[in-house]
Design brief:
single chain; about 240 residues; alpha+beta; 2 domains; 7 helices; 7 strands; about 20% strand; elongated
């Protein structure tokens, strides 16, 4: 009996870390017979079952949500302690409005979205106590993954930021610094009639495109001055 119990404790477990689209919240489940312990949905692998299939099955049983189409085999966090491996696949993009319904009886008591920044990273971390009014021990099963999860999210946000197009001010020569040539060419001075000749001279202290209709424009100074009372008195 003791050998069988030891064997069960070494069977690998697989599950998922489910994130909302903004990657600010993660879904945790609370066991039915565990008073106040929250963790990620997961469970032991069956014979001849792949890690991915095990994760999909366990998440479906414990939450009622099918992650099969969202699971990426190479996107996971894993930890090993006391000879047991736990691997959690990261599933991002799950709406906060999702209705979860466990399919197993007397296994999952509660499901809840928790802000990732409020979760503790070790048993003496009082972050959850201050922000959630919950003791760190309430997240005993989640703690080993929190720090790595935050790092993964930071890296993901950095990658997404690097992929976003960046816009810069148009240079005097008509190009956009730091932009691909294909985007800058539409602002090249050669694209305007007259090319660089349309830019005002540097000595004028102004820059910009001068339309053809303005090139011969000038003020008729004398009539303007005649309208000024002070100017007429000086001539008297």
């Amino acid at each position: 009996m003791g050998d069988f119990k030891s064997y069960k404790m070494t069977v690998p477990t697989y599950g998922a870390i489910m994130l909302d689209p903004d990657m600010k919240y993660c879904l945790l489940v609370q066991g039915f017979y565990t008073k106040a312990s929250w963790g990620f949905p997961k469970g032991k692998i069956n014979a001849e079952e792949s890690p991915e299939d095990c994760a999909v099955r366990e998440v479906l049983e414990e939450t009622g949500f099918d992650v099969k189409d969202l699971l990426k085999p190479d996107k996971y966090l894993e930890r090993q302690w006391n000879g047991q491996l736990t691997r959690l696949y990261i599933i991002n993009g799950v709406p906060l409005s999702t209705k979860f319904q466990p399919r197993t009886r007397k296994e999952i008591k509660s499901l809840h979205w928790f802000p990732i920044d409020a979760l503790p990273t070790h048993k003496k971390d009082l972050t959850s106590k201050m922000q959630l009014n919950m003791n760190p021990n309430s997240f005993f099963m989640a703690i080993p993954f929190v720090k790595s999860l935050r790092k993964w999210i930071d890296n993901k946000n950095t990658q997404q930021e690097a992929q976003r197009p960046k816009y810069q001010i148009l240079n005097r020569n008509g190009t956009i610094a730091g932009k691909p040539r294909s985007l800058a060419t539409q602002f090249d001075t050669g694209a305007f009639p007259g090319g660089q000749d349309q830019w005002m001279s540097k000595s004028s202290g102004r820059s910009g495109v001068c339309p053809d209709a303005w090139k011969n424009f000038k003020f008729d100074v004398e009539p303007i001055l005649d309208c000024l009372p002070s100017y007429r008195r000086s001539l008297a």
